[in-house]
Amino acid sequence: MSAVEDVVTEAPAVEAVPKRAMTLGLGTSLVVLAALVIAPIFVKNFIIFQMTMLLIYGLAVLALNILTGGSGQFSLGQSAFYAVGAYTSAILMEHANMNYALTLPIAGIVCFAFGYLFGKPALRLSGVYLALATFALATAMPQLLKLGFFEHWTGGVQGLVVTKPDAPFGLKMSQDMWLYYFTLVISIGIYIASINLLRSRSGRAFMAIRDNEIAASAMGVNVALYKTLAFGVSAGITGVAGGLGAIAVQFVAPDGYTILLAISLFLGMVVGGVGWLPGSLVGSAFIIFVPNIAEGISKGLSGAVFGVLLFLVIFLVPHGARQVAMVAQQLLGKMIKK
To answer: Which option is the CATH number for 21-337: 1.10.3470, 1.10.357, 1.10.10, 1.25.40?
Structure first.
């Protein structure tokens, strides 16, 4: 037996996410889609805005899920890519008078290039060292955006005000409702593309690297290419989410993209279930609504209450929303058989 085979044999097994387990069933997906389409009709604009942010953060969590759940690379720097995407859209809208919809693919391309280039030197790192490198990126980004050299474009510390778009074609709906449906269409498109990516040859290469990098290399997978590609794809999707976030919030400023945002996105991925793409929406809901619930329980101790709630979630369902969905599916199957 060769040395490579010895290493492969002795390496600890990592639980892989089966292809069918990456998504919801067709019926469940249609129910969720119908709920997302119909819900804004019956709620106020503020709730619609929160639902829009739910989709936007869901995209950012999904992007991180592709990187970590797909290729096994840890990142605490998603807030940096989110900030680059947000500022790209804001600058193009306010300084170049570009249509908001056209700024999003540009933000995605810019962030893809940024992530791909960052992934190149990061190839030498793995595990906690890669997490620390991305942590440094997230920490440095707000300070870089405040530099006087970029102040003419970024607005420096004061940031930029972004104009929220009106509904096109004379549609009689509020700005918030139009932006929600616009975000929903983009989210569905990226979600379907992400599923197809993970089911493709590239996706199988990602998961092979995640499960055992040495074995993947021995089987002919170009580890360097696919690891940097995973970084680029994840950063690109996060950049689109950042652009949508800038349009929805109508404002970008360096202090809005601190390391706390990166940690929140990572937390959303864990709560939603690592490697389970539908859980990205659940994780997004957790990081948006649970802090408000904690503050409602105790304003003075909201941080402590949030910590307790987070501990309970991780203790009771260590695999996140994916575990809840699997248990619910098993119970439903038993009820149908009876």
So the answer is: 1.10.3470
